[in-house]
Amino acid sequence: MAARFIGLYQRTDSGPPLRSCKQLPDGQRSAAQTQHHIRVCNKAAAVLSGVLRMSQSVPGKLCWFLHFRVMLSNADEIIEMQMRNDSTDPRSGATFYQRYHTLEDIYDWINRTAKDYPNTVKVILVGSSHEKRPLYALKLSLNNRPNKKAMWIDCGIHAREWISPAFCLFFVHYSLLFYNQNQAMTQILDNMDVYVLPVMNPDGYKYTWTNDRMWRKNRFPKKGTPCIGVDLNRNFDANWCTRGASDYPCSEIYCGAFPESEPESQAVANFLRSHKDSIQIYLSIHSYSQMLLMPYSCTMDEAENHSELYEMVKQAAENIRRYYRNIYTYGPGAKTIYLAPGGSDDWAHMLGIKYSFTFELQDRGRYGFLLPPSHIQGACNEALTAVKTIALKVMEKSQASTSSRQTV
Ligand code: 0X9
Ligand code: ZN
Q1: Based on the domain organization, do 9 and 100 belong to the same domain?
Q2: Where are the transmembrane segments (predicted)?
Q3: Which helix (DSSP H) or strand (DSSP E) does residue 46 occupy?
Q4: Which residue lies with its CA nearest to atom 14 of ligand 1?
Q5: Which one of 260, 262, 360, 382 is the catalytic residue?
Q6: How many domains does the chain have?
Q7: Do 309 and 333 touch, CB atoms closer than 8 A?
Q8: Dist CA 205 CA 200 (whole Å)
Q9: Which end of the chain has less Cβ packing within 10 Å, N or C?
């Protein structure tokens, strides 16, 4: 049975994490921002990232006092609208890249793109998921220069962050369309290949379209518990499962049985390991909260190239602000957001990919994971600005170091 969402909520207390609560009566779906206080008992449910999730009754007698504020009272309608938007609705003027897409549509799009650009786009099967879905990455290679460096971008580690795969699709489209049109893009693609993995967690993504729009983890069925899924961004070997991750399989930040226990994280880690000499930049796209994060998230320690990374995210945020009047915060993950070990960005950095980042795209909480399709374009443009800023800066640094080596 699909989980139902009756609203987006913000907790106004700082009580313990909710394990149990009761469906709100209809009468309580009142105006946004009004404070509510209710007693809730014997329902498996949770308030996660501002979303009050409901499911069936559970035995036991657990009651909580819940204090909350309604942020979005029509979450179910919004979800339905975003799914309807996938089919070509003649009333909607939105283009393909201004809509969200099902996993099947994304697979079709991958094949179509490779067919349409046979000389520049190659499909690479990097692995497969628990439920045996393929993990396809696209390699964009705009010329055959020898010893080209590369950038890796992955999207959709977290299933419910739909803007993330939407960005990967947009980025590929933009690169192919604007090579030789946009100066920055041309320079970047002349100097580096780009690997784009549009959906790193296909099982989870599929599940958000069919069962539970707020699903985050993969779909690993843990034997001996009713709980499913590992948080792939806690499953990499970077201070794995320390503070900021959980070894409790029902947790949203469950780290898995051991580092890279999951086929999805292992596939990405294997690919990066075998291409680490060419891949210079690692980018992982998430949402939401408008942040440009750099290592480390798994420790409060500073990365050895902290200052150059900080300069890059700062400049990227300044460019977004200048061009789009939108605010992004930036800095090392642990200090900017929270301690979160086992993440792909920290692991890639420790592997030697020194320019490693996580972007948290729009918004700052108004719609959260339910970002309306009409915001896709704006969110993607902002992220693209950050990608360009960082890639150009990295190129500038490598060119400077090559020419200084040549002059010595
Ligand atoms: O907690 C996460 O995995 C990311 N935030 S999200 O809301 N998209 O879940 C932040 C990831 C930052 N980087 C690492 N934790 N390594
Ligand atoms: Zn995420």
Answers
A1: no
A2: none
A3: strand 43-48
A4: 343
A5: 360
A6: 2
A7: no
A8: 9
A9: C
- Whether the predicted pLDDT of 367 surpasses 80: yes
- The helix (run of H) or strand (run of E) holding residue 106 is helix 103-116
β-bridge pairing 279-287 and 355-361: parallel
Using CA atoms, how far residue 20 sits from 38, 40, 76, 219, 394, in Å, is 12, 7, 21, 22, 48
Q: Are residues 255 and 330 in the same domain?
A: yes
Give residue 100's Cα distance to chain centre. 14
To which H or E segment does residue 47 belong?
strand 43-48
Q: How confident is the model over 122-137, as pLDDT tens digits?
A: 999 999 999 999 999 9
Surrounding residues of ion ligand 2, Cβ less than 5 A: 158, 161, 286
- Note the pTM of the prediction, 2 decimals: 0.86
Question: How far apart are alpha carbons 17 and 124 in whole angstroms?
Answer: 41
* Token digits of residue 331: 């800095």
Find the helix packing angle between 183-191 and 376-407, rounded to 10°. Answer: 50
**Domain holding 353: CATH number?**
3.40.630.10
- Structural domain includes residue 183: yes
Asked about 360 being catalytic, the answer comes back as: yes
- One domain for residues 4 and 131: no
Average pLDDT value for the chain:
86
Structure tokens at 128: 């497969």
Taking alpha carbons only, the member of 290, 235, 225 closest to residue 262 is 235
Q: Which domain holds residue 3?
A: 1-13+34-52+63-80
- Rounded distance between C-alpha atoms, residue 118 and residue 201, angstroms: 26
Residues lining ligand 1, judged by CB closer than 6 Å? Answer: 158, 161, 233, 286, 293, 297, 333, 337, 340, 343, 345-346, 358, 360
Alpha carbon of 118 to ligand 2 centroid (Å)? 32
My answer on whether 72 and 104 are in the same domain is no
Concatenating the DSSP letter of every residue in 22-38 gives: -PPPGGG---TT-EEEE
3-state secondary structure of 131: coil
| Measured distance between the N- and C-terminal CA atoms of the chain, rounded to whole angstroms | 68
Do the beta carbons of residue 151 and residue 180 sit within 8 Å?
no
